[in-house]
Known about the structure:
Residues 25-339 form the Histone deacetylase domain. One of its GO terms (molecular function) is hydrolase activity. This is Acetoin utilization deacetylase AcuC-like enzyme. The strands form 2 sheets. The protein has a 6-stranded parallel beta sheet with strand order 3-8-7-4-5-6, sandwiched between helices. By secondary structure, it is α/β, with parallel strands linked by helices. It has 10 helices and 8 strands. The protein binds {5-[(3-aminopropyl)amino]pentyl}boronic acid and zinc ion.
Amino acid sequence: MFSLRHQAHHPQREFESSGFQEPFERPERAEFIRSALAADGSFEFVAPEDWGVAPIEAVHDPGLVHFLEHAWEEYQQAHGPTHDVIPDVFAMPQLREGMGAAREPSDVSARLGWWCFETTTPLTHGTYDAARSSVDVALTAADLVANGERFAYGLCRPPGHHAARSVYGGYCFFNNAAVVADHLARTLDAKVTVLDVDYHHGNGTQQIFYSRGDVQFVSLHGDTERAYPYLTGHVDERGTGDGAGTTSNFPLAAHTDDDTFLDHLAAACDDVDSFDPDLVVVSLGLDTYFDDPICDLDLTADGFEACGRMVAQMGFPTVVLQEGGYATAELGENARRWLTGLAPTR
Ligand code: OKP
Ligand code: ZN
């Protein structure tokens, strides 16, 4: 599953480490993956369908969806012309401590800091369309699995797992995996697991399902004591209410290698087996790679293939959705290896 519409999201730079950097999350990422899978010859490509906004608004605040649709244009009216739109003031709840909750501001600059939590996720002219296409890719992949395919892969760009119910950031606008998991759980009356193997904790996915018993969230990630997104991902976050026990976190030390990662993945798979879902959604980040420019784990392409194999061995119908991975030149081969481990014969 792949859509050229991802190219409409193409930030010029991101404000990171107190300076403007060349964006790490760039259109070539998806192109490298697509061409590696096409060159392999054994992957069947399917065009995505249009799923509309309803499945998105089932997990996201409709106000966030509306904001993302219009914010770039509104910002141009107020402050343009600019290529990228980045917040410069954040609506920290502490500012109104003791005074009651804030209301959404009306000024577009203020609303950027209301709906976005950080500075590395610019809006561009085509961001909304690209983010919508990423959800369409994810839902089309999920639909194949819902209709009997054992595996499908959605080449999602932009990624999704940092986007929470009412806030975007971390290169993510709509939470593709959460939209898919919620859609499958509701439409099939099914139990669904989101298994997140991206280097970064899937804070958005965890938040969206934290109190739900029908969707399990299991994540392996660089320990958020040292790694983005910092505030979530600890082992004592286990879910609440109906969701008590349906969240599991596996924080990893720097330079975790293939064998140690696979040991933790085996423990994560035990939690999935205990939940016994009808379907699994994998948030596939390949930024655990040893040569990733913004992360510190030490996985190799052989390790990725072993991970795919281990996930397949659980035996559940599985939708794999692309999240991060910034070693752009090796990204296509790494995705191909992970998916080859998952489904050796296609
Ligand atoms: C997205 B995904 C830290 C800046 C962090 C955002 C990273 C988002 C990663 N200095 N910028 O999980 O791969
Ligand atoms: Zn990541």
